[in-house]
Write a structure and sequence with these properties.
Elements (H helix, E strand, L loop, with lengths): L2 H9 L26 H8 L3 H11 L12 H17 L2 E2 L7 E11 L5 E6 L5 E3 L5 E4 L6 E10 L5 E2 L4 E2 L10 E5 L22 H10 L4 E5 L2 H4 L3 H9 L2 E4 L9 E5 L1 H10 L5 H8 L8 E27 L8 E7 L18 H19 L9 E6 L7 H8 L8 E6 L11 E3 L9 H10 L3 E3 L14 H5 L5 E3 L1 E2 L8 H14 L15 H19 L13 H5 L5
Parallel strand pairs: 6-9, 9-10, 10-12, 14-15, 14-16, 16-19, 17-18
Antiparallel strand pairs: 1-13, 2-11, 2-13, 3-4, 3-13, 5-12, 6-13, 7-8, 13-15, 17-20
The structure holds zinc ion.
C-alpha cells in the first residue's frame, strides 16, 4: 500500500490494525522433487509466463507472414530464435559453429492436366484414370517429368513387421514395379497383434510408401476405403492438390508415383486381373497366413509432370553445456514453421500459427534460457532444436534425426512441444509414448508433484504418436515424447477445457485466425515448461541411459543406434 494513503486512512479515524507479514517466501511454482538439486529447481522456477507471451506474440505477428519454410517470414522466425539463444547465453550447435542447420528441401506440385495414368491389362485396351477423382499422385524424386510402364504387384497391407510375424512381401521382388496396397493395418482386438485397436506405424500411409521405396518400387497405389482410412476421398484429394515438400535425396522417399486410388478403381483393377471382389480380398489380406502377394497381369502406365522448387530452410539448434561429457544429452524440440500465406484465400490470408506452434517455441526458448542461466550446470549437455517444415510432414525433425548434434546413442531423451493452448493452468497432461520408456516411473512421480494427472492417449486409432516431431527422433531410437496438456484446468471442469479445445480445432486450427490474443493466460505454458525442464534435468541425471521397453516398435532402432 502506498505510504500517503496509510496516513489518509489513519486521519480518517479508522483504526489501523497493525499486522506482521508472515515472512514466508512466496511458494515456488516448482514443487520439491527428490533428486532435483535446489539450483535446478530455482532455474525452473525462473521460467516466466510473460516471456513466453512475448515470444508467442512476436512469432505470430503478420510481419512474420505465417513462417512458411523457405520464405522470408520463416527465415525471420529462425533468426529471431537464434538471436534469443544468443542473448540468453545458449551456444550455437548448428552447422559450422552457427545456430543454423540447413535442411535441403524440394517442393513438388503435380501438374494435373499434363499427368496421365492408365491401367494396361495383358490383353485388351488400357483404361485411363481420371486424375483427381480416381487417382492422385506425387513424384517424390523431385524430377520435372517421369514415365512409368511397370507391372503391378498386389502386396496386401504392404507391411513387413517381424515382431508380429507378418510379411506381405514374402516371395516378391518389387524392384522397378508398382505396389498395390491397402491403407491401415490388419484388424485386431489383440494388443499383442498390431496393438489391437491402436494404430501402429505400420498402418500409416507414410510407412507404406517408405517400405515400398526401400524395396525398390517405383510407385505405390494405395487403395482408399473411407472406413479404413478414417477420412473421405476429398481429404486425400485436397491434401494432394497442394504442393508437398520432401527432403532432398531422402532414401525413404524415392517413389515416382506415390499415389492413392479410389476404391472403385481398385475394384476395376482386380476385375481386370481376374481376382474378383476387392472387399473380400481385403478381408482375406488381414488374416494371418491367408494372403500371398501376387503380380497382376496389368501394368501401370503413367506420364507425370511436376512443378518442382528446390529450397533450403533451417533448423535452429542451440546447446547448454553440461557438467560432464555429452553422453546423456537431452534434447528439446518445437517446430517454428507454419503454413505461410495462401494467396488464394480472400481477406486475411496469413496463417499466423500463434498456438501452432508459437506456443511450443515460446516454451522452448524459456526452457533454454532457464538452463543457460541456471546457477548449477545440468549433469550433461542439453540441446534445443526449433525445427522447420513440420507442417510439410515432420521434415525438419527427420533431417535432425538423420544428422543429430550428438550421436544418437548419446541422446537420453527428446521432449517435444507442439501447440499448447494458453488458456489457464492445466491440471492434466498427456505424454503419448512416455509409458513405453523405462523413464516412465520418473515421469509419473514428477507429474504428481506438479499436480498433473497423466492421461492415456484419447484416440489411439488416430496415430498421434506418429504425427509430431518427436516421432522423427523416436524412429532413430531416441526415447522421445511430446508434452501436451489435457482438458482439465484450474478453476474449471473438464467439459470447459474440452469446449475450448474443440472451439480452437473447429475455428482456428490451421486457419488464418490462429492469432495471438491479449487475453491468453500463459501461466499454463510456463507450468508445462517447468514440468519439462524438471523431466529433462532428471533424465540427464539418470545413472544409465533411458530405453524403450522390451518389444516396443522403436526398441530395435535404439539397439542399432549409431555411436559415431
Ligand atoms: Zn500444425
Amino acid at each position: 500500500m502506498h505510504r500517503k494513503l496509510i496516513f489518509a486512512v489513519m486521519a480518517a479515524g479508522i483504526v489501523a490494525v497493525p499486522f506482521v507479514h508472515a515472512q514466508q517466501p512466496a511458494a515456488s511454482p516448482v514443487p520439491e522433487i527428490a533428486g532435483l538439486p535446489s539450483g535446478a529447481r530455482a532455474a525452473a522456477a525462473s521460467i516466466d509466463p510473460e516471456k513466453i507471451r512475448a515470444h508467442v506474440r512476436f512469432l505470430s505477428l503478420d510481419l512474420l507472414e505465417g513462417r512458411g519454410p523457405g520464405t522470408r517470414g520463416g527465415e525471420l522466425a529462425a533468426e529471431y530464435i537464434a538471436t534469443q539463444f544468443a542473448l540468453d547465453g545458449v551456444e550455437p550447435a548448428g552447422d559450422n559453429g552457427t545456430y543454423f542447420q540447413h535442411v535441403p528441401l524440394v517442393a513438388v506440385h503435380t501438374i494435373e492436366d499434363k499427368t496421365k495414368f492408365s491401367l494396361a491389362p495383358a490383353t485388351g485396351q488400357p483404361v485411363d484414370l481420371a486424375y483427381g477423382t480416381e487417382i492422385v499422385s506425387k513424384d517424390q524424386t523431385g524430377q520435372a517429368t517421369a514415365d512409368i510402364d511397370a507391372p503391378i504387384v498386389f502386396v496386401g497391407y504392404g507391411i513387413d513387421a517381424p515382431e508380429y510375424n507378418w510379411n506381405d512381401y514374402t516371395g516378391v521382388d518389387l524392384k522397378g514395379k508398382i505396389a498395390l496396397m491397402i491403407v491401415n493395418q490388419p484388424p485386431s482386438n489383440d494388443v499383442k497383434f498390431f496393438k489391437g485397436n491402436a494404430l501402429t506405424y505400420y498402418g500409416r500411409w507414410t510407412y507404406k510408401y517408405e517400405e515400398a521405396a526401400r524395396r525398390g518400387a517405383v510407385g505405390v497405389l494405395l487403395i482408399h476405403r473411407t472406413d479404413l482410412a478414417a477420412y473421405g476421398w476429398e481429404v486425400v484429394r485436397n491434401s494432394q492438390a497442394i504442393e508437398k515438400s520432401y527432403l532432398q535425396n531422402d532414401p525413404s522417399a524415392r517413389l515416382q508415383a506415390a499415389a492413392w486410388i479410389q476404391h472403385d478403381v481398385a475394384q476395376r483393377l482386380l476385375t481386370l486381373a481376374g481376382l474378383g471382389d476387392l472387399d473380400k480380398t481385403i478381408d482375406q489380406a488381414g488374416k494371418p497366413g491367408a494372403f500371398h502377394a501376387v503380380e497382376l497381369p496389368v501394368r501401370l502406365r503413367a506420364h507425370i509432370e511436376s512443378r518442382v522448387r528446390r529450397y533450403v530452410s533451417d533448423n535452429v539448434v542451440g546447446r547448454v553445456p553440461g557438467a560432464s561429457a555429452d553422453n546423456q544429452a537431452v534434447i528439446y524440440t518445437a517446430h517454428y514453421d507454419h503454413l505461410g500465406i495462401d494467396p488464394d484465400v480472400k481477406g486475411d490470408n496469413i496463417y499466423n500459427g500463434a498456438a501452432d506452434n508459437g506456443t511450443g517455441c515460446g516454451i522452448l526458448l524459456e526452457i533454454a534460457r532457464a538452463y543457460a542461466q541456471s546457477p548449477v550446470r545440468p549433469p550433461h549437455a542439453v540441446y534445443f532444436a526449433s525445427v522447420t517444415a513440420e507442417e510439410q510432414g515432420l521434415l525438419g525433425s527427420q533431417f535432425l534425426g538423420q544428422h543429430p548434434p550428438v550421436p544418437t546413442a548419446q541422446m537420453a531423451l527428446d521432449l517435444n512441444y507442439d501447440m499448447l493452448l494458453p488458456i489457464g493452468v492445466p491440471r492434466s497432461a498427456s505424454l503419448g509414448n512416455a509409458d513405453r520408456i523405462d523413464f516412465w516411473p520418473t515421469v509419473q512421480r514428477v507429474a504428481v508433484a506438479f499436480d498433473l494427472a497423466l492421461l492415456p492417449d484419447p484416440n489411439p486409432r488416430a496415430g498421434h504418436a506418429y504425427r509430431s516431431d518427436h516421432f522423427s527422433l523416436a524412429r532413430t531410437g531416441i526415447p522421445a515424447v511430446s508434452i501436451g496438456q489435457g482438458n482439465l484446468f484450474e478453476g474449471h471442469d473438464e467439459a470447459w477445457g474440452r469446449e475450448q479445445s474443440q472451439d480452437y480445432v473447429r475455428h482456428h486450427y490451421h486457419q488464418p485466425s490462429d492469432e495471438y490474443r491479449v487475453d491468453w493466460d500463459f501461466r499454463g505454458n510456463a507450468k508445462m515448461a517447468r514440468f519439462g525442464f524438471v523431466l529433462g534435468w532428471l533424465a540427464s541425471q539418470q545413472p544409465k541411459s533411458i530405453e524403450w521397453l522390451p518389444g516396443d516398435e522403436f526398441e530395435a532402432a535404439r539397439k542399432a543406434r549409431p555411436t559415431q
